[in-house]
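Exercise 7 asks you to align residues with tokens for two separate proteins.
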Amino acid sequence: MPKRGWIYEKGDIHREWMEKIEEGKIGKEWYLLIFRKKMKFITDFLDKQKGKKILDAGCGEGVLVEKYKKKGYDIEGIDPNYESEFVKTVSILKTDYKDNTFDIVLLLDVLEHLSYSDQYIALKEIKRILKRDGLLIMSVPNLANLTSRIKFSLFGKLSRGDKDWNHIGERPFPEYKSLLESHKFKVEEIYGITITIPFLWQIVTVFPEKLQLVHDFLLNFANIPQISLLNIFIARNIK
């Protein structure tokens, strides 16, 4: 049996999310719309990376690791709260990998769960184990998405992607970009997911299964990272 942390006590959540998406059973879980678009971007990217040495850091139960390992990829997964044949119980804050080990490091919805001080430690460790010119693929929620900006202007409150005790290190978009650049990563591409247009976004969160097309087209009509709910950074390690 795999070792589980608190977040996995109720099952393999990422695997369950993938199954619901494949079956089109979004139900009331609006976040699956964002998860689906993120995973589409990541899998399209990974499909072109065979032959590269890849680390999925903070991979949960290792759904991506399992999928691509079975395709013959050289991919490993680490997570401090999980262990299986595909995942090692290791924190990205301190790994036992040698310098310059990986061509690609995935850090998907991980950084916002770390304190601000630990984010610096994590990026320093990723830089160490990533080869020169290697790529960091990082997805993070944007605390300054459009709805959050308006809500703060009117009421002085922020609209977070999750509870503050869970997203303890959530930041606005420009801070993530500056954080990467301060660690000498060159940001080559940023892909924004879901512009939180007021009222339209709130309606989608109430009826996500019925309004999937509205989400996919009207809330993703353009790539505007500054006001999107989630951003995917592709950053090159320029040691």
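Second protein for Exercise 7:
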Amino acid sequence: MINTDQLEAALGYQFRDRNLLVLALTHPSIAHEAGVGHLQQHNQRLEFLGDAVLQLVVTGELYARFPSYGEGPLTQARAQMVNRIALAAHARRLNLGAFLILSRGEDSTGGRVRTSTVADAFEAVVGAVFLDGGFEVARSLVLTLFRDSFGAVNELPNLDNPKGELQELLQSRSPEPPRYEQLSASGPDHNQQFESAVFHEGVELGRGIGRSKKLAESAAALSALQTIKAAKAMKEG
């Protein structure tokens, strides 16, 4: 069994059943490498469970914090907090990739740093914590890990026009406008997914994904606004 002491310390949670954590770290490529006839378990079921736990925790917190907002803005805010890019960022802060159990092929092709792989593992770890410690333990863990991007936020940005709000906010400090850059486009023509980033004065402020370039840029602006407002609230606190 791998040594998970450092990861548990980073999580702030010690598993009663470490087999659950090991399973959460086991990539599906291990099963493919074992071949037909080997019943090698992997983390996809825990990923499925963890996704549901994350959705519920974040939904509950948004609902409680922002009673004046309707379903639409709350849904958009939640989507920004639990998308693949955001979850991968949390995974990297935990150095989760170093603990993954991968096939030789997956390891050699960059699996430890791949956004989808570490994001899936993050969800699986949340699922493992839920099974090991219960919902309240998992909820506390999620809110602690999301503290920088969520815990200090006291208001939602203008979700109808996040690009406009971001430009207004930044140009109150500097005449230079934000700059958007498309990072990737994937999927078939009828169902493409775009990823964009927003920069200001050479610094990346946020990333976002969407089904069009415009939506991806709006998501990036929303991510930047949340980060800026969280940093401001923590500084003032």
